[in-house]
Amino acid sequence: MTGASSGIGAEVAQRLAAEGFRVIAIARRASELAALAGAAAAKGHTIIAMQGDVTDRAAMEAIVTYVEQKFGPVALAFLNVGTYFPDSENDIGGNGFRKTFDVNVNGAINLIGPLVRAMKPRGRGQIAVNGSVAGYGGLPRSIAYSASKAALITMCEALKFDLDKIGITIQLVSPGFVKTPLTDKNDFPMPFLISVEEAGNRILQGFKTGGFEIAFPRRMSWLLKALNMLPYSAYFALVKKSTGL
Ligand SMILES: NC(=O)c1ccc[n+]([C@@H]2O[C@H](COP(=O)([O-])OP(=O)(O)OC[C@H]3O[C@@H](n4cnc5c(N)ncnc54)[C@H](OP(=O)(O)O)[C@@H]3O)[C@@H](O)[C@H]2O)c1
Fold it and tell me: Is domain 75-243 annotated with CATH 3.40.50.720?
């Protein structure tokens, strides 16, 4: 699991460990990972901390190879890393945009490649990617973030056609607003904000049922799906009015 050192990732890592998974927890902050692993060990659960940056393609390939050799076949991978760098008004498409795509999109595909190569000969495996309802359509103040999440959504849809044929389950997690360090920075209203524990419940339930999309809270995902079916003139007017942005 990537992005396990805080927020949704830390919650899901603990839940999976409590269910008996040996969780390999990847993130950059070693101290946060060590605390997570220590807390799990105190409860008799197993979380193995592995420091790494998902934008480092070679390092991610090496982690998958190492984990498969040392701990056995990966049953479930949750590619959860995602972040938000603001686009500067005077530098649209600048550093913020490029970093967002590198972390959110390349950071997922850097693991999907080696994982699929490992799972394919076994004809089984489960890979879940954390997208966002922000990828259903463009949202204000979200040029890079919305675009990166839209890329993840269509990437997972496209992967499904190929992976279904070789027995690998691909899932797309689509959260609305969840209270985490990422959203704590937001200075605008976040409708239907849910706790990280509730998000963890929905994700674990979705891993078990295995359907393509794990979208929650439903009131948020259906609202945005419905808005995206409207003509653009209505979509832009309603999003502008409801966000005030
Ligand atoms: N919170 C929400 O409302 C919400 C809504 C929709 C979608 N999501 C998605 O849910 C996912 C998790 O978000 P969150 O809210 O839990 O955010 P968070 O608390 O900020 O967690 C992000 C995690 O990603 C890790 N990370 C960031 N860059 C990394 C990199 N280059 N390499 C490795 N790890 C990296 C961070 O750890 P280190 O800093 O230690 O590396 C951290 O563990 C993201 O994909 C986000 O887009 C969140």
Answer: yes
